[in-house]
């Protein structure tokens, strides 16, 4: 995972009881839309009036209205910092207190939830122990804690009435597998990480529908949107995802690299991800950074 500041934030509310929420079984027919705001916007809880233009470029992230965690398409596990953590980092919003939730359920080793969850730690022959997780990112940050299930509630801001008027309502998803962070490195600033990878244990995998999309505006003053399910409508030219046996990242085949409409030499044409060498030339759709980076031998100007 790249720097935490170089990501989007996802809005999610963990609830104990919701009298006004529409609870549903996970279905491909359910969809919702949530607003995205820039990390440096006046509406952001991370807004810094003293930030320089360079600071704003470094924090080119977008977040949802109520931040729960960074949306990371390179992570297969959703986790958030919990009350009672042994090693904690400061966060703007209150930590999740599982003792106050009637829908929080610990996951035990040997259960199907434990088998499905990503980055789990279980001792062999101890099926009744609490299933735990440990996840470490490429920047050295990490989180460790308990695997559990909880009800996640999302506010759908993209719903419409029969006369095309706007309204919003809550959609609740029960028994979502997530991590309750109890030992976390101090490099995080958001309440957690929202896993949106290609794994079955990611939030997308648990929803039961695969499509999701987001639109990020050029100007931080304006809101973008993140759409899930059938709301993630695609228009215009499309590119198919490349085969990915690893089941974690999203890959695209790369025809070549062009600078000012001139093709950079030395990059093989029409590579496919069917072999190990070709996989190195495929673009990994890891939406944890707004910047494009190249390996050293291609980091030059012609």
Task: Walk me through the topology.
Layout: E1 8-11, E2 13-14, E3 21-24, E4 32-38, H1 53-58, E5 62-64, E6 67-72, E7 79-81, E8 105-106, H2 112-116, E9 120-121, E10 132-136, E11 142-156, E12 169-184, E13 192-195, H3 203-207, E14 212-215, E15 224-228, E16 251-252, E17 258-259, E18 262-263, H4 276-279, E19 283-284
Protein name: Peptidase A1 domain-containing protein
GO molecular function, one term: peptidase activity
Pfam family, one: TAXi_N
Residue share in helix: under 10%
Number of strands: 19
From the 3D structure, determine the CATH topology of the largest domain. Answer: Cathepsin D, subunit A, domain 1
Order of helices and strands: EEEEHEEEEHEEEEEHEEEEEHE
Q: What is the approximate shape? A: globular
Task: Output the number of helix runs.
Answer: 4
Q: Which second-level CATH architecture of the largest domain applies?
A: Beta Barrel
Separation of the first and last Cα atoms: 30 Å
CATH superfamily of the largest domain: Acid Proteases
The level 1 CATH classification of the largest domain is Mainly Beta
Q: Can you tell me the residue ranges where pLDDT is under 50 for at least 5 consecutive residues? A: 1-30, 60-66, 160-168, 270-288, 298-302
- Average pLDDT for all residues: 67
Overall tally of domains = 2
Structural class: mainly beta
Radius of gyration based on Cα positions: 20 Å
Biggest pleated sheet: 11 strands, mixed
């Amino acid at each position: 995972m790249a720097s935490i500041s170089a990501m989007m934030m996802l809005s999610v509310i963990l609830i104990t009881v919701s009298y006004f929420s529409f609870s549903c079984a996970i279905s491909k027919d359910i969809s919702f839309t949530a607003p995205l705001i820039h990390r440096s916007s006046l509406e952001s809880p991370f807004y810094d009036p003293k930030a320089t233009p360079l600071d704003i470029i470094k924090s080119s992230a977008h977040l949802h209205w109520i931040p729960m965690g960074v949306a990371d398409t390179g992570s297969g596990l959703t986790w958030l910092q919990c009350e009672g953590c042994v090693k904690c980092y400061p966060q703007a919003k209150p930590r999740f207190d599982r003792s106050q939730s009637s829908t929080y359920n610990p996951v035990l080793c040997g259960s199907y939830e434990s088998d499905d969850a990503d980055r789990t730690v279980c001792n062999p022959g101890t099926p009744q122990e609490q299933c735990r997780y440990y996840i470490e990112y490429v920047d050295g940050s990490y989180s460790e804690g308990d695997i559990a299930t909880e009800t996640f509630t999302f506010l759908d801001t993209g719903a419409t009435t029969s006369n095309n008027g706007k309204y919003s309502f809550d959609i609740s998803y029960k028994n979502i597998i997530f991590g309750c962070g109890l030992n976390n490195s101090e490099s995080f600033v958001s309440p957690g990480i929202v896993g949106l990878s290609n794994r079955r244990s990611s939030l997308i995998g648990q929803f039961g529908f695969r499509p999701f999309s987001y639109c990020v505006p050029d100007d931080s003053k304006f809101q973008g949107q993140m759409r899930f399910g059938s709301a993630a409508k695609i228009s215009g030219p499309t590119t198919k995802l490349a085969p990915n046996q690893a089941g974690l990242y999203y890959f695209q085949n790369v025809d070549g690299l062009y600078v000012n409409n001139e093709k950079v030499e030395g990059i093989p044409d029409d590579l496919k991800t069917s072999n190990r060498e070709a996989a190195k030339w495929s673009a990994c759709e890891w939406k944890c950074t707004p910047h494009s980076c190249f390996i050293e031998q291609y980091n030059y100007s012609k």
